[in-house]
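tokens incoming
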């Protein structure tokens, strides 16, 4: 059984340490076997095409041919090992054009999902990885153990730059560590980026002075690349330490380019994953969040949204999200064996700090921490600004919730002596 000139299935093949190994979940159309699909996947993503060609020669095949070495008919999982020489090592777009490219359009595959990738050492080493990682972020914010807590200024869009800065200030003095722009707030007629950043960083300085605590602002620099660069420079100039990027809507190439900018400016990157659902949501098709998270790590994201382990408003399962956290943070978070992950050796690359966000209120904090551990950022937008007594009280309730969690005092009990938390109970139960 061949695709073009070669045969790609070899169940006896043992992947080499220099192979890039991909796990796909595939559902063939009726009448097509998994073996046949493997031939098509491996061939079309590398050196093959639909027919024999005269320009192929044995040297090419010998050097560059991938091997489909694992076929699990029960789970519809297959694994293909690609020699690293097939790829330009630091070109993520190029790598994905192979292993996540044409194959999605092939007639014979009704559904196809890229579940996991293991990158070989030479490819891992060709990427920068996070500049700060978990330790660097904790050092920046001067908090050693507890989860970091933050908010997203709400409404998502609509406030003026001045109103935005005021909401941020209230959030910080109320007790939060971090304030973030929303993913769809860029530079609008009613809220200019440059003005917003200047005013909000001034508000941060004021909040730091008044509280004696370190406060962090995550301005959303998402834009076309040259403009993003300008925005990152403005953040630096005004004393910011982190920039937020919608990593999927800007594209991997832009993320890679902005990582070079943040290296020079010594800024950390907060990765928002808006649009990931288009790729990750169908359990049988698309690209898993685990893969997106691994790519984000290679390209240098310091903190990344991975969901709330099914606790908040967004679709997602605890087992899958914990597996992602396990992989990007290298912590002893219990991973889900059912996912059949390909563990990645990161060769010393810094870990990403996971972000739990989406439909969170102070009342869910202890559950999230119990499930996801201490090395996370917990963010609440509606859960802060929707507090019956407003933003500042909402921020305080978040802090009280984290205090009670760290002290291992049940939330309800802690609320008896902490009025903002008690008020949160009156609204969210
Ligand atoms: C949260 C949020 C985040 C989501 C994204 C929002 O607001 O700002 O963008 O968390 O989801 O707009 O929904 P709320 P994820 O706290 O008001 O829900 O982190 O899963 O990518
Ligand atoms: Mg948002």
């Amino acid at each position: 059984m061949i695709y073009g000139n070669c045969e790609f299935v070899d169940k006896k093949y043992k992947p080499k340490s220099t192979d890039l190994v991909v796990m796909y979940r595939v559902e063939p159309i009726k009448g097509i076997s998994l073996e046949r699909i493997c031939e098509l996947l491996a061939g079309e993503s590398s050196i093959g095409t639909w027919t024999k060609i005269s320009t192929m020669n044995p040297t090419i095949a010998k050097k560059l041919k991938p091997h489909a070495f694992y076929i699990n008919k029960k789970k519809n999982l297959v694994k293909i090992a690609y020699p690293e020489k097939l790829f330009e090592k630091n070109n993520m777009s190029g790598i994905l054009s192979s292993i996540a490219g044409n194959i999605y359009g092939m007639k014979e595959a009704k559904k196809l999902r890229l579940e996991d990738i293991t990158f070989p050492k030479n490819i891992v080493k060709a990427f920068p990885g996070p500049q700060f990682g978990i330790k660097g972020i904790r050092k920046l914010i001067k908090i050693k153990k507890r989860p970091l807590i933050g908010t997203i200024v709400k409404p998502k869009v609509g406030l003026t730059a001045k109103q935005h800065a005021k909401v941020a200030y209230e959030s910080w003095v109320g007790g939060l560590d971090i304030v973030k722009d929303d993913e769809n707030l860029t530079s609008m007629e009613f809220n200019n980026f440059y003005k917003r950043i200047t005013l909000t960083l001034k508000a941060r300085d004021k909040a730091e002075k008044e509280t004696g605590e370190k406060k962090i602002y995550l301005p959303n620099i998402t834009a076309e690349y040259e403009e993003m660069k300008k925005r990152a420079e403005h953040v630096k100039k005004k004393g910011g330490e982190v920039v937020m990027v919608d990593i999927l809507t800007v594209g991997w190439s832009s993320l890679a380019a902005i990582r070079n900018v943040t290296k020079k400016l010594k800024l950390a990157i907060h990765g928002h994953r808006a649009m990931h659902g288009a790729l990750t949501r169908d359990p049988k098709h698309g690209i898993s969040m685990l893969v997106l998270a691994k790519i984000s790590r290679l390209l240098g994201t310091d903190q990344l949204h991975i969901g709330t382990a099914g606790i908040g408003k967004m679709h997602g399962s605890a087992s899958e999200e914990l597996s992602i956290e396990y992989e990007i943070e290298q912590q002893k978070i219990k991973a889900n064996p059912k996912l059949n992950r390909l563990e990645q050796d990161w060769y010393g690359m810094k870990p990403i700090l996971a972000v739990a966000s989406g439909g969170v209120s102070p009342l869910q904090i202890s559950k999230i921490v119990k499930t996801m551990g201490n090395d996370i950022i917990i963010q609440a937008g509606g859960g802060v600004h929707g507090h019956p007594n407003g933003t500042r009280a909402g921020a305080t309730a978040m802090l009280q919730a984290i205090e009670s969690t760290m002290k291992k005092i049940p939330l309800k009990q802690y609320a008896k002596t902490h009025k903002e938390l008690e008020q949160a109970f009156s609204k969210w139960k």
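note: DSSP finds 18 helices and 13 strands in the chain.
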